[in-house]
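Ticket #4471: complex job returned nothing on first submit. Input attached below:
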Amino acid sequence: MSKPQSTGELIMDFSAVKPTQFSAFIALTRRELGHYFLTPIAYIFLAIFLLFSGVCTFYLGQLYETGQADLQPFFVYHPWLYLFLVPALSMRLWAEERKVGTIELLLTLPVQLHTLILSKFIASWLFIGAALALTTPVWLTVSYLGEPDHGVVWASYFGSWLMAGGFLAVGGFTSALSKNQVVAFVMSLSVCFVFVAAGFPLVIEWAAQILPRALVDLVAGLSFFTHYLAITKGVLDLRDLAYFVIVILSFLTATGVVIQSNR
Amino acid sequence: MLQVDALTKVFGGFTAVDQLSFHAKKGEVLGFLGPNGAGKSTTMKMITGYLKPTSGSVALNFADRVRDPRQNMGYLPEGAPIYSDMTVRHFLSFIAGVRGFSGAKRKLAVDRVIDLLQLQSVSSQLVETLSKGFTRRVGLAQALVHDPDILILDEPTDGLDPNQKYHVRELIRSFADHKLVIVSTHILEEVSAVCSRALIIAHGQKQFDGTPQALAAMAEDAQSIQVGFKDTSKVSLDELHSMPSVTKVEALPANHESKCQWQLYTSQPADFLSAFQTYVQLKSWEVQYLTQVPGRLDLVFRQLTTTSNTVPGTGQPEPATEDL
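Support reply: We reran it on our side without changes. The output follows.
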């Protein structure tokens, strides 16, 4: 290697360059999104997501056999689909950064912690949004065969995406808890399972036999399932929307607390 | 520019950095020296803000008072972690983007560091396919992309071959007059090669703070004289010993040029050479060669880091109790 020429010499004045949280957010979100497509993650995730949502809709949900022009059989399995797929997506969010050490780069950049957390969350959320968008052929099929209530379908898509945000926020939180992605996956799956199952009719019936009704209702009211189901019926109640927003914000905040406590 | 006060970091029950204080200013290349696990990296992580101190403080002030001091700082973490799924250019562009560069300026900033670290040949390669030396240079490029006033480099030459080491040291030296550079290393030669000041840390505490020359002067063999005589029969060990200010005489292995070589240690390094020459003339010995040794850094390094009974700051070690 030859001796460097004119090293350290200022080619341009960089002092005028000042980062804004917004420009940093854009750069970070683009990197996160890019990561999915630079690695096989995106393609595998999309393929599995589409395959399983197809199986659930047509085989388990018997979309054709029910003879109804709605997408209920499609949407009703989303909580179970997300239960496995979202933790697989979110497990690397922070665990990988910590394992590789790149978290040191991130946290010493002139970026607020909440910008970092939000950029990672938004990037994965957009990615799931893209996966959901790829399921529109199901909608087109039903529209071709009958006259579904498009308002309900829109609401259901929105509700499903919102619920995915809840799963992601939980997954991001557990990913921040561990350096190990497998641990993050298992923890995320367990927490999410509780969130889903707490509102599942079978579980509620069973719990009602041994626990006071008020308690069961309270726990059921904290479930993803209950609120999601309400939205897929086409009723956009502000309380259901607020529920998911609060879950997301709470877990993003908790993620921040965990990251700070590791410093 | 940088003021560190009683900086302390405790992990669980383990004190990694213990009441460390020092200050540094622009134009200095400060070398953090110490054995592995001495607290060098932890100190750097606290200066960069990655770790929060248990107690004590780090104060940074810059002439142009940017809001976020991190914008004025470049950091190469230990092991140079980089996103391995990105290409070199893509990665540097990402860092520049987060640091607020956009459009033409972003490209210019990235091109500048690609030139500076001679990464042209690998700029479109994935980071994961790079050799250790290139990865380290990408890490350096990332720390330099915004031309910061303060550079914190954790073992920047680790894993580089001698040519690459030379290049990185040249680079660091070239920053010396207009930046504050803090370099950690456990390679002693690096300290005299690039640092204007050395700070030795052991057990989380400051053991020495001064120039590399002052550090070398503390070695037991500092200013000692190695001498070879033509005619051994005239010279006796007793006579060498009887010379004032000589504390120890060691016979060096003989080689074909000189039958008899000695190393003479002294308690009065300042005028030892002239005193020795006068003595030699007095005895009318014929000297074949004569060299004065500046002091071996590895000796003083061991003195400072293997015993804890030093007086921090003054750098004066008390007699070592354990065998060096």
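The CA atoms of residues 81 and 287 of chain B lie 56 Å apart. Closing as resolved unless it happens again.
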